[in-house]
Amino acid sequence: MIAALFLLAAVCPWALLRAGRRAFLPIAAVPLAGTVWLATYGPSVAEGEVHTQVVQWVPSINLELAFAMGTLQWVLAMIVLGIGAVVLAYCRWYFHDDSAGVPRFAGVLVAFIAAMLGLVLADDLLLLYVFWELTTVFSFLLVGHDPTRRSARQAAIQALMVTTLGGLAMLVGALALAHQAGTMRISEILADPPSGTLVTVGVMLLLVGALSKSALFPFHFWLPAAMAAPAPVSAYLHAASMVKAGVYLVALLAPAFADVPGWRPTLVGLGLLTMLIGGLRALRQNDLKLLLAFGTVSQLGFMVLVLGLGTRSAMLAGLGLVVAHALFKATLFLVVGLIDRTTGTRDLRKLTGLGRRMPWVAAAAALAAASMAGIPPLVGYVAKESVFVALVDVADYGEGTGMEGVLGWLLLVGVLLGSVLTVAYSARFVWGAFADREVTEEVRVTDVPVGFAAGPVLLAALGLVAGFLGSALTYVLAPHAELLPEGAHHAELSLWHGVGLPLAATVVALGVGALLFVARGPVQTLQGALALDVSLENGYRATMRGLDRFAVELTAVVQRGSAAAYLGITLLVVVLVPGSTLLRTYDSIDVRLWDTPYQAVVGGVIMLAAVMATRSRRRLRAVLLAGATGYGTAALFVLHGAPDLALTQALVETLTVVVFVLALRRMPEYFTDRPLSARRYWRVALGASVGLVAAGFMLVGASARIHEPVSAALPRLAVDYGGGANIVNVILVDTRAWDTFGEIAVLVAAGTGVASLIFLDVRGTGIRRVHEIPFPEGVSKQPTAPGRRVWLPAPRTMTPDKRSIIFEVITRLLFHTIIVFSVYLLFAGHNAPGGGFAGGLTAGLALVLRYLAGGRYELDEAAPIDAGKVIGAGLAFAALAAVVPLAFGGTVLQSAIVDLTVPLIGKVHLVSSALFDVGVYLVVLGLVLDLLRGLGSQIDRQIVKVQRAAAEAAAEAAEGSAR
Description:
Largest sheet: 2 strands, antiparallel
Distance between the termini: 86 Å
Structural class: mainly alpha
Strand order of the largest sheet: 1-2
Radius of gyration: 37 Å
Shape: elongated
Number of helices: 36
Mean pLDDT: 88
Helix content: 55-70%
């Protein structure tokens, strides 16, 4: 079901673009079908059965997609899918034909439903966290649906920041809890809960995530701001998803961890505080949507308080409250969206007479508000009355909470005050939306389509019917509540609990709440007089402004625009932080100067070249001396018996020198003539320190080995497992092929970045063949024999002073040989030195020869193709080679070894992983081509432009002087 919803989310934009708003109805049919399908599990779930499904993902590290559906999960899943279907159908009439971004909105909303369904069904802590964060991301996109509105952008970022912060704390808590339990499976942890200080810390961190997600104090301020989202988003966000995630987590963990130190003080205390703050703020709102938003904050505090008590009767009442809240809050938000669309306003001071103009909508809103206020016989009353019963039991008997006596009665009084506020703002909503009263200018009301009103009417009717189904709800919800110990009285949801204190509490709440609404004028005046310009929302904004300011100031300090400063700071940190640890380990270093005197000779040459490079004032000489250090390193690899590394190092060094020389054409011949400052001594000291630290790292690493190196078994495994004798290549294209694939992907990204910096438009726009260009002055076009194709034609288009006979002769002699050799390296690399990387570099150097012999036109003759296409083809070929084994029943990147006897050739040894090397070959070749076109052809064009400009200027000057 989760996969189907994510697939539907991908299809939604296309469906909306093709069919318009009508597509919302068939889209809504999918979660509706899911609701019906889940309903068939109701009887078994009510009997206490838990349905599970596990899909192995990465068995080697025990990573799996584990799902479980018990009573709690089934109830939440029904809410997620059922409310989701109603909201999607409602969108058919809510959006206009010309509304911007609706196709994307539909896809994100369906993906949001899928993520929330995955969250409530996940039976793995890591999987739960993944879906948890997905809901955060999708809510960010939904709240910020209209990017042109600043309020929407700010609200989306605020919700993202707050809930992500809580999510990170939750992740740490999940890891701590899983570490102590020895498993990530939630069902196993709850069946045998661990204990200890680390468990307490982990559980409290999980609660931080729950509190931030469900907008409890001190995180409550993000939810009202999220009202910048369209009404369907608000209805779904508040009733069925996102904010219900924290409530679900509390209900899930309560049976196992309600007795953990700090659990009840945190949830009960913050829940009650949030309930009162939300209720008080709701009474002051004139925007109907904002009134409901603060009402949601209050209700969320109420639900978390009840579920966090950790008693059987409280758990049953809390689950009933979750169901009731989903029905009445979705109804009310859909009604507000309907009012907004038909009148153009949500300000209750401008609305009048809507009760007469839309009676069915008014009736639905009245039923939902009555359920929120706890008026019988609505399901909200059934749940709230059961809450009062549970609280009285806690005050009388403690019920294992330790809150009997004064603390319990204070809690009951606090909840009673919150209920009074709930009644008052519920009445304020109905009065503000539908009552007849005098207004400055009566708003114009458009007709309400039947389908538009169907959703809220249906949900309100369900809230009324559910009020008479207390025993059925008890039967369905009881299996989860029975995970907690039996209380003083039998827990049940019912319209009638008898005459007693709970009924008296309900009567007081309704009566005082009604009086509070009647006296709304003086109450609002009093609230305004007592209001302070201090809030957590203002604190958040001040914090974000301070953070932005700090970032600007810090950036001004550390981002000085100097590459030398950046490099110096980075190297200094390396020397001071990890480098300082060498002082404690230097005595363990076992120094072996060399295996053969030749290594000492090569090392001396490398050091001499390095010193001379730093002393050189001429750029070209410095580049060549730096290249000498690279070739010296290749010689050391040879002396150490590593021909593959030596070959690659030599090829890379050659190409690097060429690239440097090409770039030097646009730079001064000498380094700066300015006198050297005293800072050079600091640079010398830093360079020497980095060299010592790097050498120290390698010496400590080599001396710290206490076990047999892993490389001891590689020669045998390379042949048996990888089918090749070249250990290095087998590792790259077989045993660590995932790593290699990631590396070539990074190379592609780097090449794309370089191309973006160098090319003004697409890569291939400057490719021109020789026959397309005019011959320069002084060069006569030499005729060729009919049917004969001239090879290396570009030098003939160059003036004699720019041609190099040496390069032309070398290119004619060696180009084809080098290309053939590169192909040999590509396919021989599995058993001999070489491979795709070395082969690609070799082919790239062949292109360098063509460029040096004939310039940019000859390069285009040699490779008349966009380098980006070569790079993309290489990456695609590597990916194809990776997935082809799946077609033959294998796994990704699995290799096949085939030995054949071919007539006239003999035995042929083939390994399918060599095909992966072809992709590497193409990627490297494309990158070299990119470099040659960027630092070769592009600079050539710049030089030509400069020369033409200079010639034109000289001609104009000569003409002027002649006049």
